Amino acid sequence: MLLTPITTLSSLKSLLDSIPIRWVLIGALAANRYRGTPRMTGDVDLLLANTGGSLKPLEAKLTNAGWDVSRADPNGELIRINHEQFGAADLLLAGTAYQQLAIERSIPEKIDSQEIYVLAPEDIILHKLIAGRFQDLADIEAILATSIVLDEDYLRQWVKFWEVEDVWKKFSDAG
Question: For the purposes of burial, counting CB atoms within 10 Å of the CB of 153, is it exposed (0-12), middle (13-18) or buried (19 or more)?
Answer without folding.
Answer: exposed
